[in-house]
Amino acid sequence: MARKSKSKGELGAGLLLIFLFVLASVIVLLTIVSSFVLIGYWAYYKGLSQKLPTPQSKDDFVQTREENRLIAIAEKQCASAATLASQIETEGAQLSKRKDRQYDERSELGKRLNAQTSRTDNDRIHGSIAISVNKQFVSSRYDHHVLVESWQRGFSVAMYAYFGVLIAIVIFKPQFVVNLSEKLNSNAFISAPSFLPNLWGAMFVASVCAALGFFITRWFAKKSIESNLANGKRLTKLEAIAFSEVFAQISEIGNIFDKHCKDSAKFLADRKKELATKQRELKNKSTEKIEEEISIRPAEVRPVQVNVVEVMAPEPTQLMEKPSIEIVDKMVSPQLPIKIKSPDGKQRPALWLRLIGMFIGACFGFIASMSIFITNLVNPVASMLSVIGITLFFAIVGYRKKYKRKSTVLLPATGN
Q1: Which of 311, 340, 369 is where one domain is finished?
Q2: What stretches of 288-412 adopt beta strand conformation (E)?
Q3: Do 345 and 403 touch, CB atoms closer than 8 A?
């Protein structure tokens, strides 16, 4: 009996050690993977948020011209099907019907009316689906904007929380983190570096704080974005159409023509430049008025209050060419995003270029900072923090770098 109880105790202890090994290894793996996932998602949503145009109101999301054209065609198709169905009912009023509500096919008229009824039902179904799908694109684009902006803010706060908590724990070394790190180091398949023995515990706590910060920030950001868009000042009808077409091409949500998008992007760029010119003129006039008032009464010193007047640019007489009303057999989906050239002549590169720049900058900063770590082994914690700080600095510089480009590359229009 004693031997059996002893063997059972050894088996239980062995199973407990295996369980602790698996649990500690899973925690370490999750903490390592979560840091890369956090940086990757933050970079993705940051780049997507900068690429998409920013609306001022929920009403700025409207149908594109191609969607309106397809809806008009589908409505005509449904109306023609309804008219044909009424004619079939009138023509087959004298014929008897089966249980499936089809006409009796013992006569040639019944066979012909059944075939026409089948085609009419198909046209009506396809037209209704086309109308429903094209009308849903407006709400889909709105939901996409809210999701991208809320997730971008959530991941930004999560990034700050993660690295802030990580650096604070490494410096101040709380006792509960020290105890957790000892358990993970003794049971996991890989131990923390000797110069940072509390790394796994610090990364685990930082990941938990980052997750909490992400979910809380995303929830509040979503409510704030929806409230601002509900109370915002909407664009004009032409501006809303141009905004929706550019947004549809970049997000790939909706039906558009490339030529329409080119015109819309040019229109928005011209409007932006026009508003910037108006604001500069208003600012110069206000400055000249202040200088003139000071020069007239130099002895009197008093604060000058400048009333800022909101200037609305005049309505454009024509947005772009009138779209063709010819029926196009296929819908054209966007292939490349439109990049509106900024006034300083620089453009934001594609997301993959920015990620490559971030990786190159991080490698450069890591290599450059390793000299500090090697020459200062007396205080490894301070040296490691210097390595992390310099690496992050060059990574951010590489990610945010702008590149000059001679022109904007766009796909040629495939429709007339």
Answers
A1: 340
A2: 346-347, 403-404
A3: no
Do residue 353 and residue 285 come from a single domain?
Answer: no
Write down the pTM of the prediction: 0.62
- List the domain range (segments joined by +) for residue 396: 341-410
CA–CA separation, 290 and 311 (whole Å)? 19
Spell out where 219-357 has E strands: 346-347
Helices marked H in 299-406 — which ranges? 351-375, 380-400
Determine, yes or no, domain membership for 6. no
In a domain, 4, yes or no: no
Please check whether residue 137 lies inside any domain of the structure. Answer: yes
Residue given tokens 């008897």 in the structure block? 96
Mean pLDDT per 10-residue segment, the chain (416 residues): 58 71 84 90 92 92 92 93 89 78 79 87 92 93 95 93 90 89 84 86 92 94 94 89 90 79 72 72 69 51 44 42 37 36 43 64 58 49 60 63 40 36
* CA–CA dist 336, 413 (Å, integer): 11
Task: Tally the domains of the chain.
Answer: 2
Distance from C-alpha of 194 to C-alpha of 380, rounded to nearest angstrom: 10
